[in-house]
Amino acid sequence: MSGPCSGFRWPRTCFLLIFLFLVVNAILYLRVSLFTSVAPRPPPHNTSLLVGVSTLLFPTPRPQPHDSHRPETSTLTTHAEPQSPLHNPLLRPLLRPPASYQVCAGRQVELVICVPVSRNNAQGRAVIRETWGSPGLLKATHLPDNTRPVLNNTESLLNHTRPVFNNTEFLLNHTRPVLLLFFLGQGQPWESPQAQEQIRAEQEEFGDIVEGNYVDSYQNLTLKSLSIVQWAATFCNGSRYILKADDDMYVNVPLLLAALRNTSTHNPPTPFIRGFAITGAAPIREKSSKWYTPVERFKDKSYPRYASGTAYVMSTSAAVAIRDVASSVPFFWLEDIYITGLCARRAGVELINDIRFTYDKRKATGREFVHNISGHRYSLQEIRTIHGELSKLNSPTNL
């Protein structure tokens, strides 16, 4: 037998080779361990700083259908303390609307209807303008057959002698008008340029779109709700009330305004939020649940009392108070709990329960809404059906 480990030199040579082999492996192991322990984790998205920030705040789940009154899939990691998005300068200002800065200028606004909606839901925006949001149209030409107004001029709907639907006559003749605005985020990196052009054309036609400086995604719903609060508190702080309603809602706007007027007893008015109040909801700690919220993200055994995010109305003074404290409230991924629970509690805003709001789906009939303010989960056709039937019930011939 021949080789380095044969003969009388076998022990010294073999031990030397074994020693060198162990030393080389030890060095390689230490280098790999050191690299993996100190190398920064690459950002989940590299397309832009803004996308990276939004992804850091809302990193995980793909968009899922949701009810904003329930806990949703946790979108927060557990390796860093949460912060309010208002702390991050890349998310400031939240808003960069072209013309929407001025929609309240020179107007005595009673109610601003704010609808968070996805960028690609142009049809949903059209149906809301046609139906329950029509009292707030910024531009309108009345059509006798109650079809969607064709907006060919800037004349306010308030100057028309005939309302779009009969039960809004007292609103249209009121000195404090109603405004309708849709809140969108920025497009995803893969969105086609034509999509932004279509939104720009829609804004030119209707003048009711506000684009926030955040990526438009399911994960960024809290940013979208914050943009509503910030816009109202900054650019329409002379208004009285702010309604936030999802795009699959039906809202009886005349009944809502009547309720607000009848119960406005405080002088000066106390900042308030009014909606379907939820008390005692607890975070789900089971990791297998889609509603999982780790203790690191919310340590208390129950959430603060809050209003279902499907639809709620707040005094504009409440929006100002919430805006002013939001930067000091640790961020939480459930938008209704964050805005109407955590921020409202910090700001001392009163939460009023009103069972005429609901997160459930009422029957899709006009009669169901004669004495109710909101219902949830309606198709576009159901929204049209409710609105048409309710308009007939509220017409002068049926009163």
UniProtKB/TrEMBL annotation:
<feature type="region of interest" description="Disordered">
    <location>
        <begin position="60"/>
        <end position="88"/>
    </location>
</feature>
<keyword id="KW-0472">Membrane</keyword>
<dbReference type="Pfam" id="PF01762">
    <property type="entry name" value="Galactosyl_T"/>
</dbReference>
<keyword id="KW-1133">Transmembrane helix</keyword>
<keyword id="KW-0812">Transmembrane</keyword>
<keyword id="KW-0808">Transferase</keyword>
<protein>
    <recommendedName>
        <fullName>Hexosyltransferase</fullName>
        <ecNumber>2.4.1.-</ecNumber>
    </recommendedName>
</protein>
<keyword id="KW-0735">Signal-anchor</keyword>
<keyword id="KW-0333">Golgi apparatus</keyword>
<keyword id="KW-0328">Glycosyltransferase</keyword>
<comment type="similarity">
    <text>Belongs to the glycosyltransferase 31 family.</text>
</comment>
<dbReference type="InterPro" id="IPR002659">
    <property type="entry name" value="Glyco_trans_31"/>
</dbReference>
